[in-house]
Design goal:
single chain; five-stranded mixed β-sheet; 5 helices; elongated; disordered C terminus
Length: 155
């Protein structure tokens, strides 16, 4: 089941030279933070989307700890490409700016999948509804849905 989509965005520190430069050339020429691919052969979701759009970034630092990206951005002229939702969360906690990408790139897509054997399990039905409602609240579809629904049967 499709949970939501999230457009890609670039995140930079306030006062960064690219904060007022919407050009693709400036974006591509900048030094970037990249995230590590977790397993060989799985590909990098962001990297492959950017390559499909004809964009190749100059990645200077790679990290699997996205929490570090925020600190690296604040202390440098690096650029971080990520989903808009994460970028906005980072910008609420630090002096960062979230900007649209200067190139057209497919958004991130988040899906919820489960095994058939758990399809009717009351606890899993409740949990899936909680996840779906939370995802909707993140995308602004209905902020009131973030509350956990009551469990209808005892577990």
């Amino acid at each position: 089941r499709r949970l939501r989509t999230d457009p890609l965005a670039r995140v930079v520190r306030k006062g960064h030279p690219l904060a007022h430069d919407p050009s693709a050339a400036g974006y591509c020429a900048a030094n970037h933070i990249g995230s590590l691919v977790q397993a060989r052969g799985t590909g990098g979701g962001l990297d492959s989307r950017l390559l499909q759009a004809g964009v190749s970034l100059r990645v200077q630092v790679r990290t699997q700890y996205l929490g570090l990206a925020q600190q690296m951005l604040c202390a440098s002229d690096l650029v971080f490409t990520t989903g808009r939702t994460l970028g906005l969360c980072m910008a609420q906690q630090a002096p960062l700016v979230v900007l649209p990408l200067p190139v057209a790139v497919e958004p991130l897509r988040y899906n919820l999948v489960w095994h058939e054997r758990t399809h009717r399990d009351p606890a899993m039905v409740w949990f899936r509804k909680l996840v779906i409602d939370s995802a909707r609240s993140l995308s602004g579809q209905d902020p009131g849905l973030a509350k956990a629904p009551p469990i209808s049967k005892s577990i």
